[in-house]
Design brief:
single chain, 291 residues, alpha/beta, Arc Repressor Mutant, subunit A, D-Maltodextrin-Binding Protein, domain 2, 2 domains, nine-stranded mixed sheet, two-stranded antiparallel ribbon, 11 strands, 38% helix, 24% strand, elongated
Length: 291
C-alpha cells in the first residue's frame, strides 16, 4: 500500500489502522470508536497516530460535532471502506443475506413515519443487518463521513454525492378545534399576526425550504418553537397556537383542522444523499431501495 510519508521514507499502512480511522470518522469520538471496535482509547489513539505518521499528513480535524476527516483523510476513506466491505464478504461467504452496519441520518418525522417501518422490515428479512439511525434535520454536508445515507429536506447541493428523490409532502397550517373555538378563525394570512405560531427555532436548521415556509408568513403575536417536529404537532394539538406542520403528520390527527388551504401550502421533498463510494455496498443500496 503506498505511503505519503515525507522525505522519501515509506512506512507500511496497516489495514487495522485504516479500519480504526473509519470508526473514528463515523462516530466522531475516539472513545466511541474504541467501544465499537472492542479496544481502549489508548489503542485507538496509537493507531491513528501510526496511520498519520505512515501517510505523512493529518487525517482528522476537530469540529463542533467531534472528529472529522481532513482532506487527506477523505482520500483514505474509500480504501478503508473497501477493506471493511471485503472483510464483510468473507464473513458472509455462501450467504445471500445482508450483513454489516448501515448508518442513516434523517429528520425526525421521516425517521418515525417512513424510515423505521422500512428498516425494521428489512432487518426482519436480514437478521445480520445492523442499523444505526440518527435523527437530525439539516442540509446535506459536503464531507459527512459518519453516515452511509443522509436524508435531507430539499434537493441536496453536494456534488460529491448521489442525490435520490424519496417523497414529496406539504407544509400547511393547522390548529385544534378548541383553539379555533377560543380564538377568531383567521381568514387571511395577515390575520396570523394576531396568533401564536408554532414552528422551528429561527435560523437553527439552515434548511432553505423550511426557512422559506416561515418567511412567507407574517410574524405572529407570539411563538412556540422547537427543533422537534413532533413537539410542533403536540403543541398544536394542545391548542397552544397555529402550527406549520407536515401534512403527513397532521392530516390524520382528529384534533387538528387545516387553515387557509387556498392561501398557504408549501411543497417540500425528502432526498437521500449518498457518497458514490457508499453505493458499492450492497447493504447501502438495499436500505436506499427500502426507503
Amino acid at each position: 500500500m503506498p505511503s505519503h510519508a515525507p522525505g522519501g521514507s515509506r512506512s507500511q499502512i496497516s489495514p487495522e489502522d485504516l479500519l480504526t480511522l473509519l470508526a473514528v470518522a463515523r462516530l466522531g469520538k475516539f472513545t466511541a470508536a474504541a467501544h465499537s471496535l472492542g479496544l481502549n482509547h489508548t489503542t485507538v489513539s496509537r493507531r491513528i497516530s501510526a496511520l498519520e505518521k505512515a501517510y505523512g499528513e493529518r487525517l482528522l480535524v476537530a469540529s463542533p460535532d467531534g472528529w472529522e476527516l481532513s482532506a487527506a483523510g477523505r482520500e483514505l476513506l474509500p480504501v478503508a471502506e473497501d477493506i471493511e466491505a471485503a472483510l464483510g464478504r468473507i464473513g458472509n461467504r455462501g450467504s445471500a443475506a445482508l450483513s454489516g452496519t448501515i448508518r442513516l441520518a434523517c429528520p425526525q418525522a421521516f425517521a418515525l413515519e417512513y424510515a423505521v417501518p422500512a428498516l425494521t422490515r428489512l432487518q426482519s428479512r436480514h437478521p445480520r443487518l445492523q442499523v444505526e439511525l440518527l435523527t437530525v434535520t439539516q442540509r446535506a454536508r459536503q464531507y459527512r463521513s459518519g453516515v452511509d445515507i443522509e436524508v435531507v429536506v430539499g434537493k441536496p447541493d453536494a456534488p460529491r454525492s448521489v442525490a435520490k428523490h424519496l417523497r414529496d409532502y406539504r407544509l400547511q397550517l393547522y390548529a385544534s378545534q378548541e383553539y379555533i373555538d377560543a380564538h377568531s378563525m383567521p381568514t387571511s394570512l395577515e390575520d396570523l399576526a394576531g396568533h401564536r405560531l408554532i414552528y422551528y427555532i429561527e435560523h437553527s436548521l439552515h434548511v432553505d425550504d423550511l426557512d422559506e415556509a416561515a418567511e412567507a408568513l407574517p410574524r405572529g403575536a407570539g411563538f412556540f418553537r422547537s427543533t422537534s417536529v413532533h413537539a410542533h404537532v403536540l403543541a398544536t394539538s394542545n391548542s397552544v397556537g397555529i402550527g406549520i406542520l407536515p401534512d403527513f403528520l397532521a392530516r390524520h390527527n382528529s384534533r387538528l383542522v387545516q387553515l387557509l388551504p387556498d392561501q398557504f401550502s408549501k411543497p417540500v421533498s425528502y432526498w437521500a444523499s449518498v457518497r458514490h463510494e457508499a453505493l458499492r455496498n450492497v447493504g447501502v443500496r438495499s436500505v436506499l431501495e427500502a426507503l
